[in-house]
Amino acid sequence: MPPLGRPKKDLKQRSLADAFGISQCSNQLHISENEVYDRVDEDHESDSAELLEEEPTSKRYKRTFKSKWKMRFPWAYAVKDCNGVERIKCSWCVKFKRETPFAKDGSTTLQVSALNIHATSEAHKFSLQFLEGERKQSTLPITKHVELMVDAQKERIISVIENMYFVAIHDLPLEVYKSICDLNRYKNTPHMPLTDEYSAYTNTTSGKEFLEAAKEVYWRKLKDEIFQSPYYSLLLDESTDRTMVQHLIVYITYLTNEGRGPCATKFIHLLQIKDGTSQSMYDAVISLLADMNLSMTKLVGFGSDGASSMRGIREGLSTKLRRHAPHLLDIHCISHREALATNDASTYFEELQAIDKFANKIYSWLGKSTKRHGELKELMESFQITRLEVLQIHHIRWLSRGKVMERLVKLMPALLRDWELVEKKMYEMATIFQVQFCIHLLADVLIELNKLNQKFQEDHVDITSIGTTLDITISLLHKRFLRGTFGVGAMHTSSFLSKTQKGTLEFADCTGIVHVHELRFESLPKSQRSGTLDDCIMLGKGFVMKVIDSLNARFTDLPIFNAAKFFSPRNYYEDMDDRDSQTRRLLTCLCEKFSDGGLLFVDSIKCMGEMDEFICTIYKSYPKKHMFGAWDLCGGEIEWFERFPCLMQLWQAIIVIPASTAVCERGFSKLNRIKNDDRSKLSLKTLDMLMFLSLSAPHALNEVDWNAIYDEWKEMKTRKPLPL
Q1: What's the whole-model pTM score?
Q2: Tens digits of per-residue pLDDT, 134-178?
Q3: Which of 99, 258, 287, 471 is 20 to 30 A off residue 82, Cα-Cα?
Q4: CA–CA separation, 323 vs 14, rounded Å?
Q5: How far apart are CA 143 and CA 714, in angstroms?
Q6: Gap between the Cα atoms of 679 and 667, Å rounded
Q7: Backbone angles phi, psi at 233, to 5 degrees
Q8: What is the spatial distance between Cα 613 and Cα 619, in angstroms, rounded to a whole number?
Q9: Which of 345, 330, 565 is nearest to 449 (CA)?
Q10: How far is 166 from 210, CA to CA, in rounded Å?
């Protein structure tokens, strides 16, 4: 009797089912990672049984790829090599070029166990992850796809951004940018675009976009820093460039680190104004402050060159600003004041004005003549004089007269010998005693004033040192020219007077020959004084007295500068009672000044209450520190703000008060270097952008945030994915 149950399929029927891929499982085209690994576990249990089914004992049996395997391993497929040998390959690993036999020539092991091992391999897992990533990206919007394609060239784009940034911070012409890119490509610099086509971003137009992005990144950072500062001051100057366009350059002084860091002065904008009137400048400044979201109540200082449009009592720019900020300190640049004081003193003496004309005449006589330069060079070598050039007096430059006179003193032996041989008129003028006396006198007096001026031209002048430095200079002038013997201690004047006791000037050359020049004691044309020694000394004393008087007249705001010594422990008296009296007097002066106009942040009563402990603490802690040095140590400590809130707030306002606008003059020098004769058509936007990057952006390339600049550039407009 036949056995009960379903009849068993014979071998032929099974072969047909296998051939047509008939299976009880559903014909899935995709299998997830979890399903693959679950089935792999099941296959381990039935592996041996299946091997028995697939491997008959017949030696003539040939292994082949079975179609039913694709239901469990959808990535597997069979190929034949040139010899007709069947192999198995993985479509996923082939697509992503993995380092595995299933991705190269194919596996010759036609067994389920080989497929199981490959499914659990690291190469296959990575291929699966990439495949899943592609599926996710396929659901992204088209704009995101474009961004991803642009980001694929990020390293190359950042490389050209670096080139353009280098051009900007070194004030090079924008046309140099393409040449630098070509050079880097020639040197096989990594991550450079492979071509120089327009789409490679190596053209000037693309370069300007990079600079605009860089400027925007650091402009935002600077605005945030300034906004967090409790107080700030403005430094302004107006000038006309080489194309006769009027500009207003704006710098700002503020405290970094939210008011607890060191003081910083930065260029913020180059504004184009309609005319030089105070109203046009006022409108430009107010618009700028509104754009930066800065409150006028935080404005404590205003520095300018002293022009009437800036400091006019009725309608000057400072007067207009003071209507919004009654506490505003209007500071006339101390460097300008010193130069004006010297000019004021020289206008009283016709002899000194004649010396100015003679100095410029010497410069013009030498000119660009190769012959005269050559003869003078030989004479300088003969007298063992270091090679020097004759300078010209520039009335727009601070105390340029002092350097000119000092140079003439050094070159005088060679000049006199040259004129003696070929220029009789120049020689006759130079051998007047009064001429030589004035040249040596101006050299000595103006050298001291130049030293003072260089101190005043620093970016951050310690206002507590202005009065002391000025007093030292005045004391030196008194000692050398107004007390005792005239000229004692003055290097050039004392040497000249000792050499001319016999009425001659004598200079020895390198061969030992002494050249004697007779001096004539006569007055200069249009001079009311005779050319005698006594009259010349009287002239010198009169000039020095006028210089001192002009300095005192120009620096009428020294009391407020001296009052800032309250925050400079180095200036405290050693005696306790004297120190208490001194600091109380200084604090009273500050409170009176900053309370003018009802400024709320100065509470005189609270400041006085905190004074005793504050002075004792700072004097014991930092007795040798000046105002900036003490601030560097105290400003970053929260404890000082908790113990002395009112005095620390007053200190924050004092420390940002400007003293000099020399930084504005340097800014205009930068403008003239950028907008030269060959680049006179630069637009205001491009010029302002180049100046900002050159003056206020980091110059150390390792400090630049290239990723931020790239992101800003990418968001400026819709970018097309271009092959680089």
Answers
A1: 0.76
A2: 766 655 565 554 555 556 678 888 999 999 999 999 999 999 999
A3: 99
A4: 103
A5: 12
A6: 17
A7: -130, 150
A8: 10
A9: 345
A10: 11
